[in-house]
């Protein structure tokens, strides 16, 4: 599932490709036919991310107020994906789950199963390609097309319904309107394990398994500690850290949580690499990029020595999600 920084990058992509244009909206699969009919022929006025959800505002013109727009709420969930294609006149980026090979394009694999694609050849006779797979919704602008497949949520809402949906979410560390105190207070009042609270989108929006594991390690907090037992100043420090880490992810499209001086620490133990998952980053193969094997302290490093203390990283499960931590640094 994409973490919050990826959705913010998606919102930026929609802004750069489609905002201000009249959009043709269809549902090749048919499951979004009614919603597509409501949006078809309207102008995309606004695109914004809130946690792991994206909201697209459509209206008769760009001069329509937010309260008068129709809003498309999209939550990709575990299996959803966006695929973007352009005519070569625009920079097409942040294609989630896009095909690996296209003529005239250079593709980069991104973290959380995403891909970033840059068009390098202009085709004067460009036409939107035929939909591939079960496309729930297709958005066609003047120079680009975006296909949505397999989302958990894809629904058209009024402004009031949009505010209700957003109101169910905790603060998003990389939104300018985020209120850190709401997050801190919820943690302080809860006996639930801090590792579970960080994954609860009603407590803090946008944090996924990678950011959860890494921020807990960076502050030497056990994922099993009740939220109310974590010192308030530590919770605040974790919030501030997430702001920096997630903003880095928005800017560069990759999650990097290690300090430069720690990246070469912690060699692989013999026999643990064969079945270890690989975390892909969109900066893979780019000169000067932080290699993925140096990007994390604990995530996907089970059985390998901690970069700080040398203790093997532990792997467990919390609320049906894999959990990574150092049993010595995070007692």
Reading side by side through the largest sheet, how are the strands ordered?
1-9-10-5
Given as residue ranges, the uncertain stretches (5+ residues, pLDDT < 50) are 97-121, 269-275
| Rg value | 21 Å
CATH topology of the largest domain: N-terminal domain of MutM-like DNA repair proteins
Classified by CATH, the class of the largest domain is Alpha Beta
Give the helix level as a range of percent. Answer: 10-25%
Query: What's the end-to-end separation, in Å?
Result: 28 Å
Please provide the ordered H/E string of secondary-structure elements: HEHEEEEEEEEEEHHHHHEE
Oligomer: single chain
Instruction: Let me know the average pLDDT.
Output: 87
Q: Could you give a short account of the major beta sheet?
A: 4 strands, antiparallel
| Count, helices | 7
Q: What is the number of beta strands?
A: 13
Total of domains = 2
Shape: globular
Q: What portion of the residues fall into strands of 2 or more residues?
A: 15-25%
CATH superfamily caption of the largest domain = MutM-like, N-terminal
**CATH architecture descriptor text of the largest domain:** Alpha-Beta Barrel
| Structural class designation | alpha+beta
